[in-house]
Amino acid sequence: MKKVLGIVGLIFITATGFAQTITELKDCNEEDFLNNKSTTYTPPKYVLPNSNMWKKWSRNRNNRHTFGFQKSSTSLGATIITAEDIALAPARNLLDLLEVYVPGAYWLNAESGKVIGMQGWIASRNLRYQVLVDGVNVNQQTHSGAMNELENWDLDDIAQIEVIRGAAAARYGTGAVAGVILISTKAANGSKKQTNINGAFMSSYNSMGGNFSHRVSNDDLDFSFFGSWRKTAGYSPKAFSNNLNGEHIEFGYLGQDFRVAPFDKTPLAFYNDYNNAPQLKLAAHLRFRKKWNLRLRYTSAGGTVGGTATQTLQQTGMVIDSVTTDVNGFPVYAYSREYANELVNLKAFQTRQFTVSLGRQWNYIDSSSNKGYIINSQVSWNTQDYENRRDTMFTFNTTVPENTRKRLSDIDDPIYKKHNFSETTLNLRLSGTYAFPIGQITLGTEYTHRTIGIGWGDFANELRVGEEGAFVNSNKSKVIGFSAQQGGFTPSTFSEGFIGNGWYSYQTEAFSELSLSPAKWVNFTAMSRLTNHAYSKTAWNHRFALSFPINHQHSLQLSRQIAHRLGTEEQLYATYSYDNLASPERFDGVSFNYQFTPTYHWRFAVQAYQNQVELSNLHTRQNLQYFRPIGKTTYRGIELEANYTSKSFNIGANYSKVMPIEAPTYFPGNYADSLHVQTTFFNNNPNQIAKLWIRYKFFNNRATVQANFRAMWDYAYAQKDLNERVYPAFDELETVAESPQELEEIRALKQVFLQQNPYNMDARLDISASLKISDNIVISAYVLNLWSNNKGRRYTYDDGLQAHEADPQLAQFGVAVDKVVSFIYSPQRLKFIEEPLVFGLKLNLTL
């Protein structure tokens, strides 16, 4: 028995010694043991708990990945972007910023706006990422997800951005299955008084603007204000697209290579303001009595979408050019359309958002027992207005009434809106953490009340929401009476229903987390979150993490995540209107993180993950609506990071790779806004991405230069589709050519397609420089796309609607998909714009 106890004791002593850090060893004083004059132990003097005790206890701890606090060494798998990183990055907005610093992050153009890809995931709307600003979820839950903050061009009010990828995102609730973007804005930060004025200009986009901020602080009160204005005219890019449905199949650049309207017109302006209305951002923060935080924030963003569409001529009517008779003597009319006098950007969106939040924290830590509690509370009210304008308004009527002609000439008329609504959310959150020597336990609850209704300043008959805008106010709606081709509905063909002034939903959540550190070298965290939505089945989020902060150099973490995503509010309501509860979309993930910090200057990290994900959407069966999975897939990936930091030199490098390990499974059916699983997950995804940024400071840190390089390649599924569907279809077309002239046209078409070298490596280089002329004046300049091997190409997201939607149905009836039919759709994903060389200039004045 003594031998057994001796072995156990030896293992304990060895483990304890292995867990000690260099700092702990230096603090160990031998004289306390060898030259102790007294054999009587005297306990340390009791110190009354105060605010300094909380600061001491929470030092070197964070709550980024947990509800409570834990040592930084146990928080892995996140990217921190500081205010300095933001100031020095050549970035137009948050989308560019993520593409510069976050491993594996990139973005594409899409019909609904710009969409983010991370860790192998990308979809037509940013519904699987959560964006939180100072703890408030600012996603639009009704239709588009993360949008407003991502596309606002002014980033000067942001103090820090943290991007969490992988299993740690589960704690932020449903919808955080792919990642979380946590934004912290600048506060007074203890400065007595400071005022900043900034101005900015960016060439090519003809963008200019500025901001003003003021911060003041004293013992009891901190106040900060920020206001910005940014106007962007945009530019008309070189846009490569195709026309596969006209008399002639054509590929080429819009406005240059096409013979058939509308592809022969100027491309849609890129990154321009919606209706020439500038972007605005207003924010105020008040901290009083050192405990209460009151925040107000207004942001707006908007512009054209798609990227490869043409500017649209507004049709105002039809005229009869001539009348002839057929062989039977019946009249035959020749019509032509009437258009407005100038091109307009009909395909565009606008989003405006206003948020108010009030938060309070109570904390108490006992110095003698190292026990205490942390209580956090927050109430927030968030309202946002959304308009999504479409470009398909035209009429086939031979005669157009004068009232209709006027409406067609007004681009602000509701008949042009695919979506036009507001979303207002009230959120209450309360959580409490009890800390004890070897861990923490957290319990919390959250309540959300959401109202979807009439847009800001609109009339009830202008309301339009739902997939394809299929919910309207009543039969008095301004979109009733127009044909489906016109973007409207007739009462007999109305597909969803009337919703009056809108509807509301409520959601309750309960969450808990246990974090234990029985030894210095191990930490176990278990989290569960239960979500009950009025129109959905119960959703669970679970996360289990085992961390090994072995010593000051090595940290390991194993995580398991089971998460769910609810449908959008419009999808849930559509399902509920047929007396059904929607099934949440499931996400299973496993990740491994390793961090190695050999010295203060160097940091290395590895993250490996494997995910099994579902893709859910509206499903129509027997004229009933269901929200359910339409497919699933499994894939794995790896991310490698290396960072070097010194007083004057910083280098960051990362590499990511996504590897599908199971062919996507597609469940046949009739889906509203259908998305093909394979296309959604992989055809838009560069399987390998490498990034490098280098920063150098000189002249006593008064001057700084930075270079950012990134490369994307290995579009494996897109290349596979080209090899199996497109190129054989070209060969098929050559064999069925009926004349030498037709054969020559087909070969010329194929050559145009091949010359684009589809889905080759895309690499580009950006640079920036900053000079601190005095303590009060800083000038910065940057260049976007200084070098590119692929013309600064930015692809357009392919939703697979036309490329694949017929395949399962045809296969279900034993019909083989014809190669020529496949050709008609598959090349449509080869759409892109060429981003220009851009020069930017910023001026910062501190008063």
From TrEMBL:
Entries under Pfam families matching the protein: Plug
The entry's keywords: Cell outer membrane, Membrane, Receptor, Signal, Transmembrane, Transmembrane beta strand, Transport
TonB-dependent receptor plug domain mapped to chain residues: 72-180
Gene Ontology process terms (BP): siderophore transmembrane transport
PROSITE patterns xref list: TONB_DEPENDENT_REC_3
Taxonomy, superkingdom: Bacteria
GO molecular function: siderophore uptake transmembrane transporter activity
Membrane topology type: Multi-pass membrane protein
Subcellular location: Cell outer membrane
Gene Ontology terms: cellular component: cell outer membrane
Span of the signal peptide: 1-19
Family: Belongs to the TonB-dependent receptor family.
Name of the protein this chain belongs to: TonB-dependent receptor plug domain protein
Organism listed in the record: Microscilla marina ATCC 23134
